[in-house]
Amino acid sequence: MNNKEMFDQVSSMEEQIGQLYQQLGDLKGHIKELLKENHRMTIENHHLRQRLDQEVEQEATKASEKSDQSNVIGEGHDNLARLYEEGFHICNVHFGSPRQDADCLFCLQFLNKK
Ligand SMILES: [Zn+2]
Fold it and tell me: From the annotation, which residues make up the binding site?
């Protein structure tokens, strides 16, 4: 290899190194953008998760309130049914008075309605 060839080769390597250096800079820029976006997404995800948790909690509270109410209604119905079994009217026609062993159509209707 003569001196001219050696000089050309070194020049070509220098050029390649220059191009690689530029590519490296570009890649670094992309990575910086990705890191920023990743950070933004992490924060957004955190906020969305918090909101989801809140809504799930609210739904659960609503659902448990609803089931409490239907339990109260069920309990009231059971109490009235027991009262009827014990021989008292629970209909609004004769409420609270003794049934004297006969079934009352008003009471039965009232019980079935519930
Ligand atoms: Zn009755």
Answer: 89, 91, 104, 107
